[in-house]
Amino acid sequence: MLSHFRARKTSAALVLLSAVALSACSNGDNAGGSGGGGGDGEVDKVGLMLQDISNPFFASMQKSMEDAAEDQGFDLNVQDGRQDLGTQNDQIDTFIQQGMDLILLNAVDSSGIASAVARAQAAGITVVAVDVDAEGADAAVTTDNVEAGRQSCQALVDALGGSGNILVVEGTPTTAPQDRVKGCEEVLAANTGVKVVARQAGKNDRASGLSLTTDMLTANQDVTGIFAINDPEALGADLAVQQAGRTGVTIVGVDGSPEAVTALEDPSSNFTASAAQDPGGMALKALEVGQGIVAGNDPAERVTLLAPSLVTKDNVADYQGW
């Protein structure tokens, strides 16, 4: 395997320019990509790149992959992108040097990472995006984030009785947060009594949810609901509402995280619903798809969508969680 990768890396410089060009003009629909899964079809070395391991969602991905590596006997290298595109570029270059067979990429910037994806593929490495899509990746496995946005936002509209002023706490420039906002906007378009009075983009974490919501609450006195693109931002928003002494504000998020479960079980919390994902299962599905590509078996569809499920204060007792 190592000699095979040395051969492919020797030719990487010759094909890199064309690979980057192909990536730049790609619309993301090319199943198989330039990684293509040649060689002996075995996956012995896997690189897992996560946006932010301090987020329990990504920690769950890491845990499931560590268990899979132990069970299946492949080498796993986990890297924390720390929500920084430059860091993830450097990490992919390191993976190329280490001769990875497969990279599972949880990108901090879906478009900005494209050139690094092309470099990996030019070196013969299959790249599968996980949780958020990445431009040029051979395949992607994500939650149906548009549907997650619909479920969460519909729960908010229902809680408000179809009317009220809301805040929207958006996220980083990746497909998952953007798709959740899209799903919410579809619901709001059909429920014109609910008005978005302010929206700001956070960093997918509790701190930005707190600070941005604090600012928006200060500027908008009549707010009855908040849609946040994930649970950390939603829980930060909940803290902002409490610190501002506001009442009658309904907050929804996406993830179904352990922290969200705690909030849903708390009668005093403003947090009322979350469209739940399965991060561990998502990572394992991405591994399965990547192993298939390396073996020469592309998935039927480039993007595999996993269905979310709505968790509320009413049904949280039945929710299995992560």
Describe it.
This protein has 322 residues and is of the alpha/beta class. It has 11 helices and 12 strands. The protein has helices at 2-10, 12-25, 56-72, 85-98, 114-122, 145-159, 175-189, 206-219, 231-243, 258-264, 279-294, and strands spanning 45-50, 75-80, 102-105, 126-130, 139-143, 164-170, 194-201, 225-228, 250-255, 271-276, 303-306, 309-312. Residues 1-38 have low confidence and may be disordered.
Class based on secondary structure composition and strand pairing = alpha/beta
Number of helices: 11
Oligomerization state? single chain
- Specify the overall morphology: elongated
Describe the largest sheet: 6 strands, parallel
Strand content: 15-25%
Note poorly predicted spans: 1-38
Fraction of residues in H or I helices: 40-55%
- N- to C-terminal separation? 35 Å
By DSSP, the count of extended strands is: 12
Q: Average pLDDT value?
A: 90
Radius of gyration: 21 Å
